[in-house]
Design goal:
This protein has 179 residues and is of the alpha/beta class. Helices cover 22% and strands 32% of the residues. The chain has a single domain, classed as Rossmann fold (3-Layer(aba) Sandwich). The structure holds 1-O-pyrophosphono-5-O-phosphono-alpha-D-ribofuranose (PRP).
Length: 179
């Protein structure tokens, strides 16, 4: 699997992403306009570039925390078993929280992570996902804000990997296997 040959076709350009991130930040600001401080939680590892760009566009008092969950390992298929590998540093009880995800695919990761965060009783808990693959959904769940809906193609770049590679591409590309 990991040794297969592939090429990457650009699907969403860096410029398109930047424009969309700006709009998402505006909508999030409107929603949380009265917050004392918004805890922006990046779901590692895939969201690290998205959250960096999003918080810089977000004109609100924010703090940043991270949570690491993993379901895919080095495979292109979800294991449907979501593991928390690294928990938040801070408390979120009674606080406004924005969970930032790179992609919602089957929905298992988001559903599992949201269930955990809800038990901690945040005041408000919303989700912003850069990408959504609705055709792959197995659990009925949707982010509060979505950057782009995409078809069922394996994507990389802007934080998203294939076997831990290609996270550093500035655009979202689709992987085309050639051998
Ligand atoms: C990927 C991605 C999402 C999740 C989406 O994470 O970052 O968190 O899968 O898939 P799902 O909706 O089918 O659960 P991965 O486990 O590959 O970890 P990573 O973010 O560290 O790459």
């Amino acid at each position: 699997m990991v040794d297969r040959n592939y090429v990457i076709d650009e699907m969403i350009s860096a410029k398109q992403i930047a424009a969309r991130v700006e709009l998402l930040a505006r909508e999030i600001k409107t929603h949380f306009h009265d917050t004392q401080q918004l805890v922006v939680v990046g779901l590692l590892r895939g969201s690290f570039i998205f959250i960096a760009d999003l918080v810089r566009e977000l004109d609100l008092p924010v703090e940043v925390d991270f949570l690491e969950a993993s379901s895919y390992g080095n495979s292109t298929e979800s294991s449907r078993e979501v593991r928390i590998l690294k928990d938040l540093r801070g408390e979120i009880a009674g606080r406004d929280v924005l969970l930032v995800e790179d992609i919602v695919d089957t929905g298992y990761t988001l559903s599992h992570v949201l269930a955990i965060l809800r038990t901690r009783e945040p005041a408000r808990l919303e989700v912003c996902a850069l990408l959504d693959k609705p055709s792959r959904r197995e659990i009925d769940i949707k982010a509060s804000w979505t950057g782009f809906e995409i078809p069922d193609e394996f994507v990389v770049g802007y934080g998203i990997d294939y076997a831990q590679r290609n996270r550093n591409l500035p655009f979202i590309g689709s992987v085309r296997f050639t051998g």
